[in-house]
Amino acid sequence: MTYHLAIGDRTYSSWSLRGWLLFEKFGIPVTVETAVLYTDELPRLLARYAPARLVPAMRMPDGEVVGETLAMAETLAERHPEAGIWPADPAARARARWLCAEMHAGFAALRGDCAMNLAKSYQDSAPRPEVLADLARIEELWALARGRFGTGGPWLFGNYSAADAFFAPVAARIAGYNLPVGADAAAYVAAHLADPSFRRWRAMGWAQHLEQAAYRKPYAERPWPGPAPLEASLAEGPSVNSACPYSGRPVTDFLQLQGKVWGFCNAFCRDKTLADPEVWPKFMAMVQEG
């Protein structure tokens, strides 16, 4: 048996991103079930995760359901102590829990004015003073963690921890709305944008081809500030490969990369790869062999 995770739109559901990263970044196998926000799909999905009312929610192998990302983080850390979800040092672990709790409950202005939208980035979102105050507090928390505990790597506590999963949507907001932060905070945001797991989540969101009109903002757009993906394009078969690199099933949908055509078992597999080819290890291994 395995874990099951209910999530919403990958492009817009910041809480779902946090929950998914708790599995993805720590190597815990999970089956993901998704529903479109603000549609009848969501209550139908959550009916299988009762009594949870919001995404994300996880169902454990024994059938117990856990909602809320703080509870999920603690439960997974308890069940998988080897995964390193929290820092090993007790002082760092206490600080990481504090940061997660404040993130989970706070920063209302940033959340309200700058809803996560991984499909867009803006030149100038004209942040209100209340948003700037939230950013100042976030920078303070990040600096306190990085200065004392973060010398071993790019993340808040050196190695990636639950605290980084919780602040990944904040980094996405700073990038998407081009919010003003100092050099150290900008470097931490850049680490999230370059993280292969974050890029895979964003690519899967693009492959869903969903647009929530309520998330549109009247600002001039700019290119997404993360690493530029390898250039790929839609194509017709036949392909070099006869089996999908992800499922092993026969190919039906195709893209072109580096002068060759590659096949996938469905449009979603193709499109998530089309969005950012190099972050999919199974695909890139096939490309390198071919």
Automatic annotation (TrEMBL):
Transmembrane segments: none annotated. Keywords: Transferase. One of its GO terms (molecular function) is transferase activity. The keyword Transferase applies. The keyword Amino-acid biosynthesis does not apply. GO terms for cellular component: cytoplasm. Residues 3-84 form the GST N-terminal domain. This is Glutathione S-transferase family protein. It comes from Frigidibacter mobilis.
